[in-house]
Amino acid sequence: MTRRGGLTGSPVGPPRGKLGTCNVALVVNPFASRVSGERLAEVRAELERVAELDLLLTERPGHATELVTGAIRRGAKAVVVFSGDGGFNEALNGLESDVPIGFLPGGGTSVLSRALGLPRDPVGAARQMADALAAGRTRRISLGRVNGRRFAFGAGVGLPADVVRRVDALGRRGDGRRPGDLAFAWAIVRELAERRGRLEPQLEIEGYGRAVCAFVANGRPYTYAGPLALPIAREAEFGRGLDLIAPVEVAPLALPSVAARVLSGHASGRRFLREHDLDRIEIRCDVPLPLPRGRRGPRRRRRSRLRGRAERRLGPRVTRVRVLKISSVRARISARGQCGAA
Are 73 and 18 in contact, with CB atoms under 8 Å apart? Predict the structure, then answer.
């Protein structure tokens, strides 16, 4: 039986909940900020206590999706991803069957693994995951899906996506690392400066009204600034539907107050649309607006649908955004006494 948010009451894994010694695919992004040869060796040592590892290194954007799909087709009983949030999302899009997946923090922020309760130290996280694999401890959590492409904890329409797009345009440094928190802060400043601090409504959220931009949360926190958690949607939970936070209009003088309230998770009152545990959100954009990792399409009116229904089968990866569909889907996770997360 399935209830809203994607939780099920049926057990997963082999009899008596034991995964035992099994074939586990370890997908590693060698360019992630916190991935090094020394850390990888320590992570492998922890996981090899309980599993036979198939080490797979990503070589290009989107490669993790292919590696996860291939590993599962070859018979992997579980997948562990050592990467940042971008690699985590790619890996989620490679799932084709009910296989547990876990995440080790290898990026500069690694929101997903931290939100699931794992330590920031990847070796300590690998130790906890190995214990979970040995005991066969699993749980199901909800995922989001945008245009058939899965995401783990949050998606933004409008300003938040514009900021991510600016940072993505910077590319990687010579060592392959992505820009850090300062780059995001500077991208926000530049985006707001171009708009002269005034953010006009450009979205129509059906049944709720017009808004400047939209933050859709599948869990909390929405992100981190260094060690500081930024909840944005304080009531969002991985086991429920989607939460929506959307500023209605932002004038220059109100910008500091609105930003503080959004980031701290205290957005309420007439300046905000705020909804909790939604099955579906439908958004119409005045002009084409990007999602994080998305691309702008032709300059014409388009429609966005955000849904929060649980599904067992997950859709294919879509790289170009036209119609936006976000839904909650299920997966199994190994983190802290569980076995991986989706």
Answer: no
Query: In Å, how far from its chain's centre is CA 327?
Result: 13
Is the preceding omega at residue 221 within 30 degrees of 0, hence cis?
Answer: yes
Q: Which two tokens stand for residue 144?
A: 């989001």
Q: Are 243 and 144 in contact (CB under 8 A)?
A: no
Sign of CA dihedral 5, 146, 126, 56: positive
Q: What is the CATH number of domain 151-331?
A: 2.60.200.40
> Can you give the length of the chain in residues?
342
Distance separating alpha carbons of residues 180 and 184, to the nearest angstrom: 7
User: Which CATH number applies to 2-144?
Assistant: 3.40.50.10330
Can you tell me the distance from the alpha carbon of 236 to that of 244, in angstroms, rounded to the nearest whole number? 9
Q: Which residues pair with 285 in a beta bridge?
A: 203, 302
Residue boundaries of the structural domains of the chain:
2-144, 151-331
Tens digits of residue pLDDT in 92-139: 999 988 899 999 999 988 999 999 999 999 999 999 999 999 998 888
Q: Is the dihedral of CA 195, 305, 169, 107 positive or negative?
A: positive
C-alpha separations of 336 from 8, 76, 88, 271 in Å: 19, 21, 17, 39
Peptide bond into 290 cis (omega under 30): no
Which tokens belong to 166? 């600016």
At which residue do the structure tokens 């990467």 appear? 83
Write down the residue that tokens 């199901």 correspond to. Answer: 140
Please state the φ and ψ torsions of residue 303, each to the nearest 5 degrees: -120, 145
Q: Which two tokens stand for residue 21?
A: 């010694």
Q: Point out which residues pair with 143 in neighbouring strands.
A: 329
Which residue, chain included where needed, has tokens 């976000």? 326
220-266 residue pLDDT tens = 998 888 888 989 899 999 888 889 999 898 887 787 888 888 888 99
What is the pTM (predicted TM-score) of this model? 0.74
